[in-house]
Design a protein that fits this description.
The chain has about 280 residues and is α+β, with helices and mostly antiparallel strands. The protein contains eight helices and ten strands. It has a six-stranded mixed sheet with strand order 4-3-2-1-7-8. Helix 4 packs across helix 5.
C-alpha cells in the first residue's frame, strides 16, 4: 500500500518569520502507507553464469531504489528524488545520481537559489493506493512529465492533481476528489502550516456533519385544516341548488325546497303543481 501526499516547502519556517512563510513550493510525495522506509523486495532474475555475473556487476552500477519519491518543479523541469533527501546529495547533483552515502537524511530540498534550501512546513495526506510505492511512483512519474513547468506553483499543482484524478490514482469509494476542493484546502493549510493535515479525514468529517444536520431538520408541515373549513363547503353545497332570475326574483329549484312544497296541503281549487299556491 502507498500513501499519496502534498508537501509544501518555504524558505523560512513560521517560527523564523512570524509574518508568514511566503510563497509555497508544492510537491507530490509517494511513500509507503505507514510512513516507514520499507525494504524493497528483490525481484527474481534469470540465472547467469559466474563469468556473466562478474562482468555485469562490474559494468552496471547499482541504481538506488527509492521507497519514497518526491516530485516537484525545479528549474522549469520535473524533478524526481528520494525523500527524505540524503544529506550527501542534498547539495550535490552528482552525488544524488550515485545514491546516498551514510544514513543521514534531511527534509530540506534544494532551491534555484544557491545556499537557500526550501524547508518542509506543510504535509497533507491525500489518499492511499493499493499499488507498491515503487510501481506507483513509476506511474506517477509518467503522468507528471506532461504537466507544465512554466508558471506559478499553484498552476503546476493544479495540473498534477488533474492528472492523478483523471488516471483514478486519487480515487475512493467514500469521498469524491475535486481539484478546486483540494487547492482550497491546501491554501487554507498555508495560513497555518502543519505536518498533520489529512484531506480524506477532513472530507469524511464534513460529510458526517452534513448528514447530521440533514437528519436534525424538521420535516415540512402541511397547513392544518380546521373543521369549520371542511364544514363550510359541505353546507354550501347542501344548500346550493340551481337558481335563476324571474321577474326580478331569484328562484331556486331542486334540493329540499322542492320536496317541502310537494308536502304542503292545498285546497281543491288551487293548482296542485303550483309550488307557490296560486300566488304567481
Amino acid at each position: 500500500m502507498s500513501q499519496i501526499s502534498i508537501l509544501g516547502f518555504a524558505f523560512s519556517s513560521p517560527s523564523q518569520d512570524p509574518s508568514g512563510p511566503g510563497p509555497i513550493h508544492w510537491s507530490i510525495l509517494v511513500s509507503p502507507q505507514d510512513g516507514s522506509q520499507a525494504t524493497p523486495q528483490p525481484q527474481p532474475k534469470p540465472k547467469k553464469s559466474r563469468f556473466l555475473q562478474r562482468w555485469h556487476s562490474s559494468t552496471q552500477p547499482q541504481q538506488p531504489v527509492f521507497t519514497s519519491t518526491l516530485f516537484d518543479m525545479h528549474n522549469h523541469q520535473l524533478r524526481q528524488q528520494q525523500f527524505p533527501v540524503p544529506v550527501s546529495s542534498s547539495s550535490d547533483s552528482e552525488a544524488e545520481s550515485k545514491g546516498p552515502k551514510g544514513g543521514q537524511t534531511t527534509t530540506d530540498i534544494t532551491s534555484p537559489f544557491e545556499g537557500k534550501p526550501l524547508r518542509l512546513i506543510i504535509r497533507i495526506a491525500l489518499s492511499t493506493h493499493r499499488s507498491d510505492p515503487q510501481k506507483l511512483a513509476s506511474r506517477v512519474s509518467t503522468l507528471l512529465y506532461g504537466t507544465p513547468t512554466y508558471g506559478p506553483e499553484d498552476d503546476w499543482l493544479r495540473a498534477a492533481l488533474e492528472e492523478l484524478i483523471y488516471a483514478r490514482i486519487l480515487d475512493s469509494e467514500t469521498i469524491s476528489y475535486d481539484v478546486d476542493g483540494i487547492l482550497n484546502y491546501a491554501c487554507g493549510a498555508a495560513t497555518n502550516p502543519s505536518l498533520g493535515f489529512d484531506y480524506a479525514a477532513h472530507m469524511t468529517r464534513t460529510a458526517q456533519v452534513k448528514e447530521m444536520f440533514s437528519r436534525g431538520q424538521p420535516a415540512s408541515k402541511s397547513p392544518s385544516v380546521s373543521p369549520s373549513r371542511i364544514s363550510r363547503p359541505a353546507n354550501k353545497r347542501a344548500s346550493s341548488g340551481k337558481s335563476h332570475s324571474f321577474l326580478g326574483f331569484w328562484v331556486t329549484q331542486g334540493g329540499s325546497g322542492q320536496v317541502r312544497h310537494h308536502q304542503e296541503k292545498r285546497d281543491y281549487w288551487q293548482r296542485q303543481d303550483d309550488p307557490y299556491g296560486g300566488l304567481m
